[in-house]
Amino acid sequence: MNALLIAIGNSLRHDDGAARHAAILLRASCDAEVRIKTQLTPETAAEFAGRDHVVFLDADAAAAKVSLEAVRDVCSPASLTHTLGPREVVALARALYGFAGRAWLCRIPARDFSPTPGLSPRARSGAAEAARRLLRLLDQIAAHSPSAPPGDELIDSLKEDAGTQGPRKTV
Question: What b/e sequence results for 128-153 when a residue is b if at least 16 CB atoms lie within 10 Å of its CB, and e otherwise?
Answer without folding.
Answer: bbbbbbbeebbebbeeeeeeeebeee
